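User: Second chain of the day. Same drill as before.
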Amino acid sequence: MAKDNFCIYCGFKLFPEDHFCPNCGKRLDEGPNAQAKSSKYEPNKVVDGIDLSQVNKAKKAQSDFYSSSTKSKTTYATTTPDYTYYKNQIKKLKESFETKEKKVLELLEKKFPSGQMSYYMFKGEVDSCRVSFFKEAEAAESMIELSDEYSDKIANELKNKIKTLQSIVGKLGDLQSELIISISNEVDDGDEEIKNLIEEMNELINSVKDYE
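Assistant: Same format as last time:
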Protein backbone atom coordinates (compact mmCIF):
# COMPACT_ATOMS: atom_id res chain seq x y z
CA MET A 1 0.00 0.00 0.00
CA ALA A 2 0.92 3.63 -0.27
CA LYS A 3 2.74 4.88 2.76
CA ASP A 4 1.90 8.50 3.65
CA ASN A 5 0.75 8.88 0.01
CA PHE A 6 4.28 8.29 -1.29
CA CYS A 7 5.71 5.18 -2.98
CA ILE A 8 7.82 3.19 -0.54
CA TYR A 9 10.15 2.25 -3.40
CA CYS A 10 10.80 5.49 -5.29
CA GLY A 11 9.07 8.20 -3.23
CA PHE A 12 6.63 9.18 -6.00
CA LYS A 13 3.49 11.10 -4.92
CA LEU A 14 0.48 8.74 -4.84
CA PHE A 15 -3.28 8.83 -4.65
CA PRO A 16 -4.96 6.78 -1.91
CA GLU A 17 -6.58 4.45 -4.46
CA ASP A 18 -3.24 3.59 -6.17
CA HIS A 19 -2.25 -0.08 -5.92
CA PHE A 20 0.70 0.34 -8.28
CA CYS A 21 3.18 3.23 -8.36
CA PRO A 22 2.60 5.22 -11.61
CA ASN A 23 6.32 6.07 -11.64
CA CYS A 24 8.22 2.85 -10.94
CA GLY A 25 5.39 0.33 -11.49
CA LYS A 26 5.95 -1.42 -8.15
CA ARG A 27 2.94 -3.06 -6.49
CA LEU A 28 2.14 -1.11 -3.35
CA ASP A 29 0.23 -3.69 -1.27
CA GLU A 30 3.22 -5.97 -0.95
CA GLY A 31 6.32 -5.49 1.12
CA PRO A 32 9.73 -4.86 -0.48
CA ASN A 33 10.82 -8.48 -0.06
CA ALA A 34 7.70 -9.91 -1.68
CA GLN A 35 7.94 -7.43 -4.53
CA ALA A 36 11.58 -8.22 -5.18
CA LYS A 37 10.79 -11.91 -5.26
CA SER A 38 7.74 -11.73 -7.46
CA SER A 39 8.97 -9.11 -9.94
CA LYS A 40 11.17 -11.70 -11.63
CA TYR A 41 8.16 -13.80 -12.59
CA GLU A 42 5.33 -11.34 -12.87
CA PRO A 43 4.49 -9.81 -16.25
CA ASN A 44 4.79 -6.05 -16.88
CA LYS A 45 2.45 -4.05 -14.63
CA VAL A 46 -0.58 -2.66 -16.45
CA VAL A 47 -2.75 0.03 -14.88
CA ASP A 48 -5.86 1.31 -16.64
CA GLY A 49 -4.61 -0.29 -19.85
CA ILE A 50 -1.18 1.40 -19.59
CA ASP A 51 1.98 -0.69 -19.49
CA LEU A 52 3.93 1.17 -16.81
CA SER A 53 7.19 -0.60 -17.58
CA GLN A 54 7.08 0.76 -21.12
CA VAL A 55 6.32 4.24 -19.81
CA ASN A 56 9.34 4.05 -17.55
CA LYS A 57 11.52 2.85 -20.41
CA ALA A 58 10.38 5.80 -22.52
CA LYS A 59 11.18 8.21 -19.69
CA LYS A 60 14.64 6.72 -19.28
CA ALA A 61 15.30 6.86 -23.03
CA GLN A 62 14.28 10.51 -23.11
CA SER A 63 16.49 11.29 -20.11
CA ASP A 64 19.44 9.50 -21.72
CA PHE A 65 18.89 11.41 -24.97
CA TYR A 66 18.98 14.83 -23.30
CA SER A 67 21.97 13.82 -21.21
CA SER A 68 23.83 12.65 -24.31
CA SER A 69 22.85 15.77 -26.24
CA THR A 70 24.08 18.08 -23.48
CA LYS A 71 27.35 16.18 -23.23
CA SER A 72 27.81 16.35 -26.99
CA LYS A 73 27.26 20.11 -27.02
CA THR A 74 29.71 20.57 -24.16
CA THR A 75 32.34 18.48 -25.94
CA TYR A 76 31.82 20.43 -29.18
CA ALA A 77 32.17 23.73 -27.35
CA THR A 78 35.47 22.68 -25.80
CA THR A 79 36.94 21.20 -28.99
CA THR A 80 35.86 23.80 -31.55
CA PRO A 81 39.08 25.40 -32.84
CA ASP A 82 39.67 29.11 -32.41
CA TYR A 83 42.49 31.62 -32.92
CA THR A 84 43.88 31.59 -29.37
CA TYR A 85 47.11 29.88 -30.44
CA TYR A 86 47.79 32.43 -33.18
CA LYS A 87 46.95 35.32 -30.88
CA ASN A 88 49.44 34.08 -28.28
CA GLN A 89 52.12 33.55 -30.94
CA ILE A 90 51.73 37.10 -32.21
CA LYS A 91 51.95 38.46 -28.67
CA LYS A 92 55.17 36.54 -27.98
CA LEU A 93 56.72 37.68 -31.26
CA LYS A 94 55.90 41.31 -30.52
CA GLU A 95 57.57 41.03 -27.13
CA SER A 96 60.59 39.33 -28.69
CA PHE A 97 60.89 42.03 -31.36
CA GLU A 98 60.76 44.82 -28.77
CA THR A 99 63.52 43.18 -26.73
CA LYS A 100 65.81 42.55 -29.71
CA GLU A 101 65.21 45.98 -31.25
CA LYS A 102 66.16 47.71 -28.00
CA LYS A 103 69.36 45.68 -27.78
CA VAL A 104 70.25 46.28 -31.45
CA LEU A 105 69.87 50.07 -31.07
CA GLU A 106 72.09 50.00 -27.98
CA LEU A 107 74.72 48.03 -29.90
CA LEU A 108 74.53 50.37 -32.90
CA GLU A 109 75.26 53.33 -30.63
CA LYS A 110 78.21 51.43 -29.25
CA LYS A 111 79.49 50.35 -32.65
CA PHE A 112 78.86 53.67 -34.41
CA PRO A 113 79.01 56.71 -32.08
CA SER A 114 76.16 59.15 -32.62
CA GLY A 115 76.83 61.53 -35.45
CA GLN A 116 78.41 58.97 -37.75
CA MET A 117 76.65 58.41 -41.06
CA SER A 118 76.74 54.65 -40.59
CA TYR A 119 74.79 54.89 -37.34
CA TYR A 120 71.91 56.82 -38.90
CA MET A 121 71.87 54.59 -41.95
CA PHE A 122 71.60 51.40 -39.93
CA LYS A 123 69.18 52.92 -37.42
CA GLY A 124 66.94 53.99 -40.31
CA GLU A 125 66.85 50.41 -41.55
CA VAL A 126 65.94 49.09 -38.12
CA ASP A 127 63.16 51.69 -37.88
CA SER A 128 61.84 50.58 -41.27
CA CYS A 129 61.95 46.99 -40.07
CA ARG A 130 59.86 47.98 -37.04
CA VAL A 131 57.19 49.61 -39.20
CA SER A 132 56.85 46.53 -41.40
CA PHE A 133 56.83 44.15 -38.44
CA PHE A 134 54.05 45.88 -36.55
CA LYS A 135 52.04 46.47 -39.70
CA GLU A 136 51.97 42.70 -40.25
CA ALA A 137 51.23 42.03 -36.59
CA GLU A 138 48.34 44.51 -36.53
CA ALA A 139 46.89 43.04 -39.74
CA ALA A 140 46.93 39.56 -38.18
CA GLU A 141 45.33 40.81 -34.96
CA SER A 142 42.69 42.65 -36.98
CA MET A 143 41.70 39.42 -38.76
CA ILE A 144 41.27 37.70 -35.41
CA GLU A 145 39.24 40.60 -34.03
CA LEU A 146 36.90 40.73 -37.03
CA SER A 147 36.26 36.98 -37.20
CA ASP A 148 33.12 35.78 -35.43
CA GLU A 149 33.81 32.11 -36.21
CA TYR A 150 36.75 29.88 -37.06
CA SER A 151 37.84 29.70 -40.70
CA ASP A 152 40.58 27.50 -42.18
CA LYS A 153 41.29 30.16 -44.79
CA ILE A 154 41.86 32.82 -42.13
CA ALA A 155 43.93 30.38 -40.09
CA ASN A 156 46.21 29.74 -43.08
CA GLU A 157 46.62 33.48 -43.64
CA LEU A 158 47.52 33.91 -39.97
CA LYS A 159 50.14 31.17 -40.29
CA ASN A 160 51.73 33.02 -43.22
CA LYS A 161 51.83 36.29 -41.31
CA ILE A 162 53.32 34.61 -38.26
CA LYS A 163 56.05 33.09 -40.47
CA THR A 164 56.84 36.58 -41.77
CA LEU A 165 56.99 37.97 -38.23
CA GLN A 166 59.28 35.11 -37.19
CA SER A 167 61.57 35.83 -40.14
CA ILE A 168 61.86 39.52 -39.25
CA VAL A 169 62.59 38.71 -35.59
CA GLY A 170 65.14 36.12 -36.75
CA LYS A 171 66.98 38.65 -38.96
CA LEU A 172 66.98 41.18 -36.13
CA GLY A 173 68.46 38.50 -33.87
CA ASP A 174 71.18 37.77 -36.44
CA LEU A 175 72.01 41.49 -36.61
CA GLN A 176 72.21 41.63 -32.83
CA SER A 177 74.64 38.69 -32.76
CA GLU A 178 76.81 40.16 -35.53
CA LEU A 179 77.04 43.52 -33.75
CA ILE A 180 78.10 41.79 -30.54
CA ILE A 181 80.84 39.86 -32.40
CA SER A 182 82.03 42.96 -34.25
CA ILE A 183 82.19 45.10 -31.11
CA SER A 184 83.95 42.34 -29.13
CA ASN A 185 86.63 41.91 -31.82
CA GLU A 186 87.20 45.67 -31.96
CA VAL A 187 87.80 45.52 -35.69
CA ASP A 188 85.90 46.82 -38.69
CA ASP A 189 85.94 43.53 -40.59
CA GLY A 190 82.43 42.82 -39.35
CA ASP A 191 80.96 45.93 -40.95
CA GLU A 192 80.50 44.16 -44.26
CA GLU A 193 78.62 41.35 -42.57
CA ILE A 194 76.41 43.90 -40.83
CA LYS A 195 75.65 45.54 -44.18
CA ASN A 196 74.77 42.17 -45.67
CA LEU A 197 72.35 41.47 -42.82
CA ILE A 198 70.74 44.88 -43.28
CA GLU A 199 70.29 44.14 -46.98
CA GLU A 200 68.69 40.80 -46.16
CA MET A 201 66.31 42.58 -43.81
CA ASN A 202 65.46 45.02 -46.59
CA GLU A 203 64.76 42.20 -49.01
CA LEU A 204 62.46 40.54 -46.49
CA ILE A 205 60.61 43.79 -45.84
CA ASN A 206 60.26 44.48 -49.57
CA SER A 207 58.87 41.00 -50.13
CA VAL A 208 56.18 41.75 -47.55
CA LYS A 209 55.35 45.04 -49.30
CA ASP A 210 55.17 43.29 -52.68
CA TYR A 211 52.78 40.72 -51.21
CA GLU A 212 50.48 43.46 -49.96
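Residues 32-43, 74-79 have pLDDT under 50 and may be disordered.

User: Great, on to the next one.
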